Amino acid sequence: MPGGSIEVRSALAGDLLDALDMQAAVLDARGTIVAVNGAWKRFASANQGDRSTYYVGSNYLDVCEAAARRASGAGAQAVLNGIRSVMRGERERCTIEYPCDAPTQRRCFVVHVARFRHEGADYIGLVHEEITARKQAEERLQEAEATLRKVLEALPIGVWIMDREGHIIHGNSAGKRIWAGALYVGPEQFGEYKGWWLSNGRRIAADEWAATRAIRKGETSIDEEIRIECFDGTSKIILNSAVPLRDAAGTISGAIIVNQDITRRKAAEEQLRRATATVDAMNRELQEVLAREQDNARTDELTGVSNRRRFFELAEPMFAAAQRSCTPFSVLLFDIDDFKRCNDLFGHQVGDAVLRRVADIAREHTRGADLLARYGGEEFVVALPETDAEGAMTVAEHIRQGIAASRLRAGDREIGVTISGGVAEMQVGDDTLDRLIRRADQALYAAKDAGRNCIRPHAAEDGG
Length: 464
Prior knowledge:
Number of domains: 3
InterPro entries: Diguanylate_Cyclase, GGDEF_dom, Nucleotide_cyclase, PAC, PAS-assoc_C, PAS-like_dom_sf, PAS_4, Rev_trsase/Diguanyl_cyclase
CATH class of the largest domain: Alpha Beta
Cofactor: Mg(2+)
Protein name: diguanylate cyclase
GO molecular function, one term: diguanylate cyclase activity
Keywords: Coiled coil
């Protein structure tokens, strides 16, 4: 990195911390606050905190203990316990979600606690992030799912939900009463169901069932009259309907099957049509709500790629699978060179456009199996399963070259940006994904030191 003295690095680190929207503080070995970032100060000012010192010099453990003694202090006690466990060396880091009730609303936060050494002394780093919106989105999602199940159980008709493989993932009580149970098979085995077309008495073939046609062809079938042999050997006449389910991209993801027993009362046709239409409309609305809430909870709003939380949710299992199967797994970590200067010169709107363009180009050069996420600020991360360091370097170079060649309008000027990145391949000593990412981060620093606008692989001599 040009001008890479300790002072310059410290200044850059300070600028980076101040650029974060998350509140960060550093504690010494006794728990005394020795440094805070700009977001911490802004939060303290906005919440009637100490504006003279912003709590620098105060003992954060004492603050937590005081909060824990209050009636609503369970969250503060959890944070206190987590910090103490890290300070005692029981673990290197921890993450704790906790509620923090404000006078007008209930707010939720997450704190990341990590221990580090600086100039021979132990310190504790705290990063607080408000997750109220995410928790509210998750609660709405859970409520929507619970409501759907209650509605399905309340319906007097049989409703089955199948996945794209044709396996039943939910059947309500009415459906199981009609069929005298459930048979969990896919479309290839639908011939195991015994049914005949009521109009001509012909046996229904496996590929003629409404569920098969919904899943394979996207067909919607309404009120097909058939006679079935139930699993207990009894015979019934039912109206059989199927509606394909589609995800946000329009791809068939499964089907809803609706059954109505009309053995005794064929006059129920109109009731079934109304119920089917209700279920269909309910499903469309629910799919929209679920897609929207899932997107809000898992996607970076600015760039449209996965957020940091979603990255670890998906990348941790990918990393574990690679360990079990002894297959290559690499991580690319890159950030935008001089991004703060770009923001200062051209404004945050241009900076946001740069972040979106970088994300779009990175997305173009990654595979469907790869996982691209915004790691924080101007930093992005890519998990590359079944990819060794050489392959990861190729992907990284394509991304770097694509970004370097791209231009954006900023008023009457065209601007371009570059990235620096680090690549690390999983090794025997990488027992956690965090460790692998740290090695990629070391390689990223090597790229900065090499003059930026380049990618560097992690080498054994880099340490870590």
